[in-house]
Amino acid sequence: MAESRLSLLTSPALSYVSSSPASPWATYLAQVDRVMPYMGDLARWAGTLRRPKRVLTVDVPIQLDSGEIAHFEGYRVQHSLSRGPGKGGVRYHPDVSLEEVMALAAWMTIKNAAVNLPYGGAKGGIRVDPALLSIKELERVTRRYTSEIGIIIGPQQDIPAPDVNTNAQIMAWMMDTYSANVGATTTGVVTGKPISLGGSLGRVKATGRGVFITGREAMRRLKLPLEGARIAIQGFGNVGANAAELFAMAGARIVAVQDHGGGVFRAGGLDARALAAHVAEHGSVAGFEGGEALETEEFWTLDVDVVIPAALEGQLTEARAERLRARLVLEAANGPTVPGADDVLAARNITVLPDVICNAGGVIVSYFEWVQDFSSFFWTEEEINMRLDRILSGALAHIWSTAERHKVSLRTGAFIVACARILEARNERGLYP
Ligand code: GLU
Questions:
Q1: Residue 147 lies in a domain
Q2: Are 213 and 342 within one domain?
Q3: Edge-to-edge, what's the strand order for the sheet holding 262-265?
């Protein structure tokens, strides 16, 4: 009775969502559905996870170098603020959409709670191909976007950071623009800044380092030796390249790397540093002479121990999951595996270490940066790496045992840990009015 009144009253679905079953937002919702049976009484708050708290869409007009006026669509989504300020990166990509940013914001909520950072979750993006802009145009886009979202960001409100195609220089412009608008240098408004502006040592490599740390811990539990392990990586940006270097240093072999331009393979292991230098010069791994070319679909069928998707969402489809020959998937990207593929991989006994723990190293060191900015006291890189290792290893152990106890996947285990924290906070705060 009460339930039918509730379902009659509540807006059925978000009017601004396309509800395409293949969208990242649909993936996120399916992941939330799987965890609600474990939430007990807290499940009555489930609706707060199924819709973002706040969505801002902005027009970003800039003058091009030619004098013409171009417009870009920008977003900042605060999915949840129950456990603290919003936190999450800003992505520049021609395919960015509101729905994608909503999903990425929601995954930040889960990630921050899974590793117990005192944050909610947020994400931003601009629908732009930064490769087509001059450096001056990139700066103007960044500054105008920052001004437009300035009404909802701030060191205690919501703290942006780098993501796909954004970096320390862009964070410096964001910090400067926000500071100029509020009339006070406010280093804590963004993280991932240059060291000279209150950035943290270890932040650039933190996400890749976190993939290595969590990968190492997962492999130890699966009795997969690191030494000689064969690894295939999709995406060779900041995350993929830094993870590759650490795995190679630990004795693993990076046998294949694929990116938007093509793929390369070498059974004996690619030289990760030389490959990174090639990418810096040519923009892609394609044409790298230290290996042979690899077709797109071949990448997903390689005989390897570990596959690391470190690019965009939705890459590990059901069809690719059926053919995958690895023992372990390390989700360095956000949302790389669709829910149907999760089921296929579970049935095939292939372990998936989910994004919300695997790539949390970046936001953990962002948290360290934010704390250092507030105290104006900066830590050594050793201390940062040591604390990062401790937080990630501890979170992974907790998630692993939760998954074992409930006999669920590591993703559902991570969501159980995170959603219990989020919904408990939500419940304790109560509703206003
Ligand atoms: N963009 C990164 C992520 O997806 C880092 C976010 C942050 O440092 O706030 O986790």
A1: yes
A2: yes
A3: 292-293, 262-265, 253-259, 230-234, 306-309, 328-330, 351-353
Q: How far is the CA of 163 from the centre of ligand 1 (A)?
A: 6
Is there a contact between 192 and 369 (Cβ–Cβ < 8 Å)?
yes
Residues of the domain holding 222: 206-358
**Is 34 found in the same domain as 174?**
yes
* Rounded distance from Cα 167 to ligand 1 centre (Å): 11
CB hemisphere CA count around 224 (13 angstroms): 19
**Ligand 1 centroid, distance to 176 Cα (angstroms):** 20
Asked if residue 179 and residue 300 are part of one domain, the reply reads no
The b-or-e profile of 403-412 (16+ CB within 10 A means b, else e) is beeeebbbbb
Same domain? For 24 and 82 the reply is yes
How many CA atoms, within 13 angstroms, populate the side-chain half-sphere of residue 328? 25
**pTM metric for this prediction:** 0.97
In angstroms, the CA 186 to CA 195 distance is 15
Distance CA 413, CA 177 (A): 40
Q: For residue 293, report the phi and psi dihedrals to the nearest 5 degrees.
A: -70, 150
Asked if the model's pLDDT at residue 306 lies above 60, the reply is yes
Compute φ and ψ for 52, nearest 5 degrees.
Answer: -70, 145
In 3D space, the residue among 261, 333, 242 whose CA is nearest the CA of residue 299 turns out to be 261
pLDDT at residue 258, rounded to an integer: 98
Q: For residue 360, which atom of ligand 1 is closest to its CA?
A: 10
Is the Cβ–Cβ distance between 175 and 186 less than 8 Å? yes
Q: 296 has which bridge partners?
A: none
pLDDT band at 352 (very low <50, low <70, confident <90, very high): very high
Using most ligand atoms within 8 A of CB, pick from 366, 367, 370 the residue to mutate for ligand 1.
Answer: 366
Q: Are residues 223 and 262 in the same domain?
A: yes
User: Which residues, judged by CB distance below 6 Å to any ligand atom, belong to the binding site of ligand 1?
Assistant: 87-89, 161, 163, 191, 334, 359, 362-363, 366
pLDDT of residue 292: 97
Look-up of token digits 């408990």: 424
Quote the tokens at residue 106. 């929601």
Domains held by the chain: number: 2
Q: Residue with structure tokens 């060291």?
A: 195
